[in-house]
Specification:
The protein has 471 residues and is mainly β. It has a single domain, classed as Porin, CATH 2.40.160.10. The protein has four helices and 24 strands. It has an 18-stranded antiparallel beta barrel, surrounded by four helices. The chain has a two-stranded antiparallel sheet with strand order 1-9. The longest helix is centred in the N-terminal third of the chain and has 10 residues. The radius of gyration is 22 Å and the shape is globular. The two termini are 35 Å apart. The N terminus is likely disordered.
């Protein structure tokens, strides 16, 4: 049965749940405006605020009221012993230039979070966007007929884009050993800046995620419905559902955590009325690998994720992804290190990723690890070497973030890409992340086309960190 995003949003608005303003980030986490790649490992879970209510007092003075409204509260809050509801604006408005060309973004929307009882939680976002972006992003969008990291679009005025985004998730914490999440959003598997399994690189997708943990062992299953896209076909016959599942079993040895991961793209019936492959209901890890050892009808990858927390500030991590079946070729690996506040208010991350040719491909191209023609693992999909470095300094309400990405893509273009970005933000409201920012990005490409560029932007946003367009 297909669960569409409108239904999920409707359920979310009915089931008001716990605010996710202060999250703990773990191996599998939901997409959010977070610095997840700087977060500490959480040994208790596999899957990855105190909010003041409005005061009606008229004796605080205009200045105190203004400061309290902009920094110390949500736009709207409703609280009781049994339920809580928080509503805030979603904005991401900026203007800038790429060389002499004007670039801009205008996103407006609403975000909701809440609580009902102690077990049910919810968050939701909806926003509408128009924007004109740097040439590299624009070229990619027209190539795949979807805005990178987002969804399909309409053209808007002078070569600009128009699109909408909806996220909605309901969480049920049955007890300390079991919880369920149902929604339309993105998930991330790993401890690093990127992931070899599942990242926030593509559009939102529908998912059901349930997690069990007992003492040092945890087990997680993620069922998703993603989209096969055929950009060259007419719009009404361009998109088809496909089922992508992840099975993760982890063992926690205090400082060392080892996870075994199985990823599966299930065989599909490429018709407009296709909804769900019954095989995707299967909740048992490794059965897909064993069943496909003879039939080879599904695209199956297996791998491991390992993290070692030397102390509270030093974390080493790695991933590897292997195609064990005849129809999957090659391997991919990741190794990284991060300091979480080794020096006060200073965070550092260094990471290397590499993938062989065709690791995520399949004999049937419809079963590739993609969603809306965008890789659901690392940004560059196959056949690349990548080095990432990130540095964050936080002082009071100021955030200074520097990122460097080097990529060597071994394909017909033989491209080497170096992206340097610097972002300065001032946090206005700590509850909804409202901030003002100034950013600069330089993108250097070494190939026959020499498509070098740089751009700067200035704006206001409720995103604490920008979307990564590292391609």
């Amino acid at each position: 049965m297909l669960i569409n995003s409108k239904f999920i949003l409707f359920i979310s608005l009915l089931l008001i749940a716990i605010s996710l303003k202060s999250q703990t980030f773990t191996t599998v986490e939901a997409r959010g405006n977070s610095m997840h790649h700087f977060s500490k490992a959480n040994s208790n879970e596999l899957i990855r605020p105190t909010i003041k209510s409005f005061s009606d007092s008229i004796n605080n003075g205009l200045r105190k009221k203004l400061l309290d409204f902009t920094y110390n509260r949500n736009l709207f809050s409703l609280e009781s012993e049994d339920y809580k509801l928080y509503i805030d604006p979603y904005v991401n408005i900026y203007y800038g230039k790429e060389q002499s060309n004007l670039i801009w973004n205008n996103s407006r929307g609403i975000s909701l979070a809440g609580k009902i009882g102690k077990k049910l939680s919810f968050y939701s976002e909806f926003y509408d966007t128009q924007g004109k972006y740097p040439k590299s992003i624009e070229k990619k969008a027209y190539q795949i007929q979807a805005l990178p990291s987002f969804t399909t679009f309409k053209e808007f005025k002078d070569s600009a884009f128009d699109y909408s985004t909806t996220s909605a998730v309901v969480i049920f914490d049955a007890n300390k050993h079991f919880n369920i999440r149902l929604g339309n959003d993105k998930l991330f598997i790993g401890n690093g800046y990127k992931s070899l399994f599942l990242t926030s690189n593509s559009s939102n997708y529908q998912f059901l995620n349930y997690n069990l943990n007992f003492k040092n062992i945890s087990y997680s299953v993620i069922h998703t419905i993603m989209q096969n896209a055929y950009p060259n076909l007419p719009f009404e016959s361009r998109y088809f559902n496909k089922n992508v599942n992840y099975y993760i079993v982890s063992y926690d040895l205090n400082k060392l955590k080892i996870s075994f991961i199985e990823s599966v793209v299930f065989e599909i019936d490429d018709t407009m009325d296709y909804r769900y492959n019954l095989k995707a209901i299967n909740p048992i890890i490794l059965t897909n690998t064993l069943l496909n050892s003879s039939t080879n009808n599904d695209n199956v990858l297996t791998g491991i994720d390992i993290s070692y927390q030397l102390n509270k500030n030093h974390i080493f991590y790695m991933q590897t992804n292997l195609g064990l079946l005849a129809n999957s070729k090659g391997k991919s690996f990741q190794i990284g290190y991060k300091q979480t506040e080794f020096i006060k208010n200073l965070y550092l991350l260094a990471e290397i990723n590499k993938a062989d040719k065709d690791i995520y491909n399949f004999k049937d191209y419809k079963l590739s690890f993609t969603n809306y023609s965008q890789a659901i693992a690392n940004n560059f999909y196959n056949n690349f070497f990548e080095a990432d470095f990130a540095l964050l300094y936080k002082y009071k309400n100021f955030f200074l973030n520097y990122e460097m990405n080097y990529v060597d893509i071994d394909d017909k273009t033989n491209s080497e890409i170096i992206i340097n970005s610097l972002n300065l933000r001032f946090l206005i409201n700590k509850y909804n992340n409202l901030n003002i920012f100034l950013s600069f990005t330089d993108r250097s490409v070494s190939n026959a086309n020499k498509q070098n560029s740089n751009w700067w932007t200035i704006g206001i946003s409720t995103m604490l960190f920008p979307v990564n367009y590292n391609f």
